[in-house]
Design the sequence.
């Protein structure tokens, strides 16, 4: 791990890894960026400012996390202030200082010099839904999903509506039953490929599987029952990691990619 | 049950299990989870004091008074200070469906497990939210039906000046500034029975417990304000709030004397904090909040004697620090803006309140047309690209011509904006409806009434200049505000019936349900338009300003004479100072003369 050059010889672009959980899960992307900026300011670690009449601190986050999702290995790029002098401060020390200045639920894992020219363009994100109770028919629904050539869902937004083929984006979904540990929860782990025309959303993938599961048991997907099916009790989303263009996969995403060969 | 014996609730883990599925189904789930920067926690064995603002989280978390009390209870007493805000209707409906009672954000304990529940009452249109929160907490709505294990529910804030509409629902009211009485309030909770706790509370100066002997209660003034350290470790929310900045209260009270203004009478006397204290606190505040903007707040920050020095010294603390003054007075705006430099951004609000010199004199707004135009000129010269002007409609002695002249002012200021703003400057005008409030010289004046307000609003729209944004208050909401502001205890049943019919968040135009209020009025035999213009009910609250001063101010309004600001021209005899309460000005003491005195011209 390389150490940020903080001796005052020009701005240093740093790659910042952090996690969010607990109450912090409910921040939006902009909320998260603001919380990180405040953590830097509270930790006394200056960030460089943009040029111009209305300077802003140079901090940008990677792939936005959905509101409600925890993030285990999130990345941000920060440009440290040119006059920053942190004699002897190493990456772990900077991360520790940031963590102690961060709100509950946000922890900084490392701060290191970013590869030259790096921009955080996502290629693949690894997610996990966990459930407080076993969702009925999930395994069968997954089989059905994987055997289909395409699985289209409607997506609407204020800009209009369009149809998205989830099969193009969802990679290697796996449903894991809980083991003997009473604290263990059923989990659905999957990757989402980020292509030029966009990506699937974790929630629409889960909802699709749950609708397929209902259909598989001869149920109906209409009305309140379907609504409940789409919102299984205690379903929680966590992003385990993101693979970015030009940056070697790291952490859990790296392990996941390596397990069955290069999936991305 | 004494505090020590009180059962401690299961807490956060169980709450999370029940709450998490609901958070998926509501707008802005971050409203319900807390976890802010600088959140305070004490062991769950400490007595629980819950503080609430009866509106949605984003509004409530921005309220400086609640932040102050939260920190003060935590630092000055052995109690654990926690918070709860009013859940938005989507969450309220799920809470009822799932049987999940209102919880305190820090520990996840139900609010009903608190020893004391303080609810601030910022204005009348939050009253149905007070009932909503009490109901969501699982408490009996009526104070008389609460039992030993229930918290004592205390109302505070400026609306307690006329507490009638909430008397049946709250156990007690605290009148005035509570910082100096917190230790006594928390100590009273140690009494073994509910009755004894209420009796002990009733003995604390400023507390009024309806039904007890005391017929009047005197507003409390925090005499230690000037010397006390400003709040430097406030809660900083994780989600976007209405105000995203660090605030320092540089001064409390205002003696500008605007005759319609409840805050101007309620928070007297003026107390200024030394500049050194303010700058020192700003440094710590910036460090603790991570904010890059400090707002020097008060009712009228440009009247703070140390404003220029404080602004320049705070700017020197750190590169990029911005200092804002949220409340510029028209008569001093030009001078203050000149001191801020010409590279300002964003927008500024000025409140001439009335459009003609004559009506401004009548409401004691000491600014003439030339000063107003100089102030707006200074706004655009300073680089601001937005200007919002506040006016009121329905003021006592107002004529149709006064209202139409608002359009005239808008036209002239819009021309200034066009000339100096280079096409970027925008003017918007907000015209609210005057509602007479208790503890003001205009308390006895009548609300203009729905018909007059509608007619004048339509007349103003008809002559409104193109290109200037105009917003006006909803007439039914203003009528309701007048009913509640004047109402005595009999209006309490109206509030209850309206809440029962679904009235909530009455200050939010998208949630306001006039039909619920009309139906409630029918049920309790009240005509809302008549009630809005009726004489105000008697109040047990002595706001410290003397009735003789109010009477003199009313007389002066009629003859169109202003009253000097006692900070600059000597005592005008409002009656507030005395018995240890006094002005604390950076410029030195002001001699108190006693009786109202005829000043001004």
Sequence:
């Amino acid at each position: 791990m390389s150490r940020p050059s903080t001796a005052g010889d020009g701005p240093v672009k740093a790659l910042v890894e952090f996690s969010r959980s607990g109450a912090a899960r409910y921040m939006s992307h902009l909320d998260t960026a603001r919380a990180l900026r405040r953590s830097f300011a509270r930790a006394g670690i200056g960030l460089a400012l943009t040029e111009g009449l209305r300077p802003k601190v140079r901090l940008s986050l990677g792939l936005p996390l959905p509101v409600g999702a925890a993030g285990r290995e999130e990345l941000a790029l920060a440009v440290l202030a040119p006059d920053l002098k942190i004699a002897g401060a190493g990456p772990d020390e900077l991360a520790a200082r940031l963590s102690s200045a961060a709100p509950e639920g946000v922890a900084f894992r490392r701060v290191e010099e970013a590869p030259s020219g790096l921009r955080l363009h996502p290629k693949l994100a690894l997610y996990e839904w966990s459930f407080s109770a076993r969702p009925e028919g999930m395994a069968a629904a997954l089989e059905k999903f994987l055997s289909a050539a395409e699985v289209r869902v409607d997506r609407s937004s204020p800009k209009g509506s369009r149809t998205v083929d989830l099969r193009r984006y969802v990679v290697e979904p796996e449903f894991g039953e809980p083991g003997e540990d009473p604290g263990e929860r059923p989990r659905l782990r999957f990757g989402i490929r980020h292509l030029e025309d966009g990506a699937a959303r974790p929630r629409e993938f889960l909802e699709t599987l749950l609708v397929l599961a209902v259909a598989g048991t001869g149920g109906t997907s209409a009305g309140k029952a379907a609504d409940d099916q789409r919102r299984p009790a205690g379903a929680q989303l966590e992003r385990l990691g993101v693979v970015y263009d030009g940056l070697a996969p790291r952490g859990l995403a790296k392990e996941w990619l390596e397990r069955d060969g290069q999936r991305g | 049950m004494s505090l020590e014996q009180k059962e401690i609730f299961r807490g956060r883990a169980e709450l999370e299990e029940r709450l998490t599925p609901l958070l998926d189904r509501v707008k802005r789930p971050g409203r319900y989870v807390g976890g802010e920067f600088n959140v305070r926690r004490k062991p769950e064995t400490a007595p629980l004091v819950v503080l609430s603002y009866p509106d949605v989280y984003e509004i409530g978390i921005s309220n400086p008074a609640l932040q102050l009390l939260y920190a003060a209870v935590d630092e000055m007493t052995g109690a654990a200070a926690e918070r709860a805000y009013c859940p938005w209707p989507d969450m309220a409906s799920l809470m009822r469906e799932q049987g999940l009672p209102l919880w305190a954000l820090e520990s996840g304990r139900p609010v009903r497990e608190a020893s004391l529940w303080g609810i601030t009452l910022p204005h009348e249109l939050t009253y149905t939210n007070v009932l909503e929160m009490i109901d969501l907490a699982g408490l009996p709505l009526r104070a008389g039906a609460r039992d030993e294990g229930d918290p004592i529910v205390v109302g505070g804030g400026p609306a307690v000046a006329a507490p009638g509409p909430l008397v049946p629902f709250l156990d007690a009211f605290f009148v005035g500034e509570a910082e100096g009485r917190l230790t006594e309030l928390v100590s009273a909770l140690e009494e073994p029975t509910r009755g004894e706790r209420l009796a002990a509370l009733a003995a604390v100066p400023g507390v009024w417990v309806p039904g007890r002997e005391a017929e009047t209660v005197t507003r409390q003034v925090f005499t230690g304000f000037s010397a006390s350290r400003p709040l430097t470790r406030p809660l900083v929310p994780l989600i976007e709030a209405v105000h995203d900045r660090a605030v320092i209260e540089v001064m409390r009270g205002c003696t500008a004397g605007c005759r319609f203004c409840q805050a101007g009478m309620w928070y007297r006397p003026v107390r200024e904090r030394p500049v050194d204290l303010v700058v020192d606190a700003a440094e710590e505040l910036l460090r603790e909040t991570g904010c890059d903007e400090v707002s020097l707040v008060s009712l009228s920050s440009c009247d703070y004697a140390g404003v220029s020095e404080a602004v320049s010294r705070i700017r020197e603390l750190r590169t990029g620090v911005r200092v804002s003054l949220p409340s510029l007075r028209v008569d001093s705006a030009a001078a203050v803006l000149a001191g801020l430099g010409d590279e300002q951004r964003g927008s500024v609000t000025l409140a001439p309140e009335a459009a003609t010199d004559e009506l401004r004199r009548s409401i004691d707004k000491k600014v003439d047309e030339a000063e107003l135009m100089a102030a707006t000129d200074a706004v655009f010269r300073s680089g601001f690209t937005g200007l919002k002007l506040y006016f009121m409609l329905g003021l006592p002695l107002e004529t149709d011509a006064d209202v139409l002249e608002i359009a005239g002012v808008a036209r002239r200021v819009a021309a200034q904006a066009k000339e100096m703003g280079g096409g970027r400057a925008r003017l918007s005008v907000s015209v609210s409806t005057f509602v007479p409030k208790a503890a003001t010289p205009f308390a006895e004046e009548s609300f203009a009434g729905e018909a007059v307000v509608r007619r004048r609003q339509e007349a103003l729209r008809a002559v409104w200049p193109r290109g200037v944004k105009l917003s006006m208050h909803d007439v039914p909401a203003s009528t309701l505000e007048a009913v509640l502001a004047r109402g005595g205890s009999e209006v309490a049943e109206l509030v209850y019936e309206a809440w029962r019919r679904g009235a909530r968040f009455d200050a939010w135009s998208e949630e306001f349900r006039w039909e619920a209020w009309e139906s409630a009025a029918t049920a309790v035999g009240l005509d809302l338009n008549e009630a809005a213009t009726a004489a105000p009910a008697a109040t047990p609250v002595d706001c410290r300003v003397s009735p003789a001063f109010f009477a003199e101010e009313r007389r002066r309004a009629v003859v169109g004479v202003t009253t000097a600001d006692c900070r600059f021209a000597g005592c005008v005899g409002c009656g507030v100072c005395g018995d240890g309460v006094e002005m604390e000005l950076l410029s030195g003491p002001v001699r108190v003369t006693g009786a109202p005195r005829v000043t001004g011209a």
Q: What stands out?
A: The first helix of chain A runs from residue 29 to 43. The interface with chain B takes residues 22-24, 26-28, 30-31, 34-35, 37-42, 44, 49, 53-55, 67-68, 101, 103-105, 132, 231, 233-236 of chain A (CB under 8 Å). The beta strands of chain A are 12-20, 59-61, 70-80, 106-113, 122-130, 152-157, 160-165, 170-176, 187-193, 236-244.
